[in-house]
Structure of DUF866 domain-containing protein:
Amino acid sequence: MVKIALNLTAEVENIVELYTSPEYEWNLKLRCTSCNEADDKWHAINPDEEVQGKGGPGSFNFQMKCKFCSNVSTIDIVKDSIRHITAKENGMIENQTIAVFDCRGVEPVAFDPQSDWIAKSEGGYTFESVDFGDDENGDAWFGYDDLAKVSVSVADLKGSFERV
């Protein structure tokens, strides 16, 4: 059992808090720890989905069979590990853990934030359905806070993984 944290870094403008919606699916690229081959496909991991383990007791949020070595691996999102991340006064989110994954036989190697994020502005407005999947903006989102009359943004959102 290896626990791996997903840490986020971003540059924000007039945003104080960023978090995922309750329906959010974590989109990860994975590498098998048995044969070290990375799968080029994105895998959606839903914290509300439970898959029964094959060949033994237990349930997980995700299970896959490696197409190279046939190793069966699982991922479970650690309960209560999904967090809200907050921006610092310098307008940065720096290496903050947003979720922890219990990985068995597989490790995440890439993260795609896509859609279903929520951002709170300094002016108190909550932006729902924040989408980082727009090809034009890459891993960025731009909006306007009508209450505070200021532009808001999350730019250069990047994820990194760390064993915990």
In short: The CA atoms of residues 136 and 142 lie 11 Å apart. The longest strand covers residues 150-163. The radius of gyration is 17 Å.
